[in-house]
Amino acid sequence: MDMRNFACMEVIYEDNHIIVVNKRPGEIVQGDKTGDTPLVETVRQYIKEKYSKPGNVFCGVVHRLDRPVGGLVVFAKTSKALARLNEMFRKGEVKKTYWAVTRNEPKETCGRLHGYITSVERNNKSYVSAEPKEGAKEAALSYRLIGRSERFYLLEVNLETGRKHQIRVQLASVGCPVKGDLKYGDKRSNPDGSISLMARRIEFVHPVSKELIDLTAPVPDDVVWRALEESVRSEERRESRD
Q1: pLDDT recorded at residue 220
Q2: CA 181 to CA 195: how far, in whole Å?
Q3: pLDDT of residue 167 exceeding 60
Q4: Phi, then psi, of 13 in degrees rounded to 5
Q5: Separation between Cα atoms, residue 117 and residue 122, nearest integer Å
Q6: Helices and strands per DSSP (H, E), number in the chain
Q7: What is the per-residue pLDDT across 48-71, written as a single tens digit (0 to 9) for each?
Q8: What secondary structure letter does DSSP report for 196?
Q9: In Å, how far from its chain's centre is CA 211?
Q10: Which residues contact 67 (CB under 8 A, 6 or more apart)?
């Protein structure tokens, strides 16, 4: 077994039933028409080699992140865990917190965005409208401004629904496209092709042990992300002194 093959894969949590990985921007969770190796296959091979498992190894996809987005992704190592996690996600019992970097400061430091999203396969893009329309799905999220640097702002986002490209299109609709997201109106791309959006934290009751799982991903090793994270910490220290 040569675990060096998985040196770039960051496992945040693992037990007999689930494994949580910090996905890198650019990775795909499941296979698509590009033919690139999906993260689920990398995780499957990791399990197979680490535990010397013969034959096919079970690894179930519970949820997904857009390709240019990084952060926490949960996979199921057993069919029991997959079925229960799928039900928990369907019922909204899994809390996911995202961090998004924007160049523009939102007009309100916190708020709720509500609309109706239509996804178009032809150009792999979503559109949001204020009123219901045929084929559109209701979408809602809440956000708050938690950090700032000289040029950028950090928003914490919590989803109430899980629509395709939801955070990206809804933030863009209020003049705050995610840094690097050319598809939704940002003016410059990130050097690595990522967008500055990450699945920062995930909280849920373990599908088998029933223990509370509360995990946080480290921010990318990037000067903008580090500066914004430090601004959050500085604010937390200030509040603790007050």
Answers
A1: 93
A2: 5
A3: yes
A4: -155, 145
A5: 15
A6: 4, 11
A7: 999 999 889 999 999 999 999 999
A8: S
A9: 22
A10: 25, 26, 27, 28
